[in-house]
Amino acid sequence: MSSLMLFVGVVENREFAIRTALESGLRLAVIDFATAPMMQLAHIQIPVDDLFDPEELQRAFDRLPERPDGVLTFYDELLEPTAVFAEKNGCVFMSPRAARLALNKVAQRQALTEAGLPCPQWVTCDTLEEATAAAARTGYPVALKTADQAGAIGKVLVTDETLLPAAYEQVHAARLDLSVPLLVEELLTGPEYSIEGFVRQGEATAICVTEKTTLPGPVPIVIGHALPYRGPDERELTETAIAAALALGIDNSVIHVELFATARGPMIVEVNARTAGDRLMDMIHRRSGANPYHAAYGLALGQDFGWTPRWEGAEAMLWAVPERGGVLAGFDGVPDVLREPSLKGLAFAAGPGMTLPDTPEHVGHRLNWVICEGADWREASTRARATLARVTPRFANRTARPAPPPTTAHEECVQR
């Protein structure tokens, strides 16, 4: 019988992960929200109401009809319970301690600082008064974030003291664990990058560096990726990211490390023990000829796998965000964009009838994306910007009640 791979939650934009698993002959067991669209593709389906409820997740583990041969999760928040399950059931995975360090930003900052690795200045706080004092010492602008979330979730950029109380309430409410503190960090400036790679039996392999584009504003929403980045600081960025992952004890896992290139050198934003979001894995496969999900599954199953990329060209993905609020009626320019020779992908995360705020507040307010290819990451980025501008949102002349952001983004995709 073929190997059984357990997915503890499948986030959006992971269709390629599922396709690779099925094409590899794996049987799939999925524990996920009952509304998760990928659930129907699994051989063993275990739906839950709240994937982040520890007791309900444990009951879901207990409902598995057989022991999986491998396990992984795409959710940072579920790394630690997945690691505990793997340890109890003899599955290859990182240790529960490493999983905790990969999520908890306070513990992660402490470990990286003790290892002598470059991080922004940071202070923990449990009250608004402590946050106010920490921000004053650090100097505005600052980043205020919760310790148990990743990416832009539970993170607000604060430019002056008058905005801190509202930001504190917003970030405080975003915590998954009500006992964790908040962090006040210096606001880093400079180009932003991520390093994709994996760690196998204590040895790290870098896949590529990705140049990021982030929407300016109080909530740092990522709207662009270009890879492989080949700038003069590629090696320094890569070495810093690899050192960070190893310092946390991450093993037998894909890694996604985010950094800023500052005047003081690379600064580590966060270390994630999972595959990158959006369509980065798809882009890596097309440009390198090597499938990163083969690496992810080989790691999870404890199997040997080869990694021999042959890079050719580059790709860039760029998201559109609304320049105004209102009720979305549709998009213009799609037929024209579909004729673009460099286009590799196009999708819509927002659909007609969705009410959008005047200012985007989270990734659920991103509208649509394109992926374009080029000779290098710069040309691919230029083409993506020009192509995305040809798709324009159309708004209805009516009002409607805003709908809550969906648990998983619904996308209508065109992939080449």
Question: Explain this structure to me?
Answer:
This protein is α+β, with helices and mostly antiparallel strands. The chain has four domains: 4-93, NAD(P)-binding Rossmann-like Domain (Rossmann fold); 121-186, ATP-grasp fold, A domain (Dna Ligase, domain 1); 190-301, D-amino Acid Aminotransferase, Chain A, domain 1 (2-Layer Sandwich); 314-415, Aldehyde Oxidoreductase, domain 3 (Alpha-Beta Complex), CATH 3.90.1170. It contains twelve helices and 20 strands. A hairpin with a 5-residue loop joins strand 10 and strand 11. Helix 3 packs antiparallel against helix 4 and helix 4 (96-103) packs across helix 5. The longest helix is centred in the middle third of the chain and has 14 residues, at 234-247. The radius of gyration is 21 Å and the shape is globular. The relative contact order is 0.12.
Number of strands: 20
Mean pLDDT across all amino acids? 91
**Biggest beta sheet attributes:** 9 strands, antiparallel
Strand order of the largest sheet: 13-12-9-10-11-14-18-16-20
Q: What Rg, in angstroms, do the CA atoms define?
A: 21 Å
The CATH topology of the largest domain corresponds to D-amino Acid Aminotransferase, Chain A, domain 1
Q: How many independent structural domains? A: 4
Helix content: 25-40%
What characteristics describe this protein?
416 residues; alpha+beta; Rossmann fold; Dna Ligase, domain 1; D-amino Acid Aminotransferase, Chain A, domain 1; 4 domains; 9-stranded antiparallel β-sheet; 4-stranded parallel β-sheet; 20 strands; 28% helix
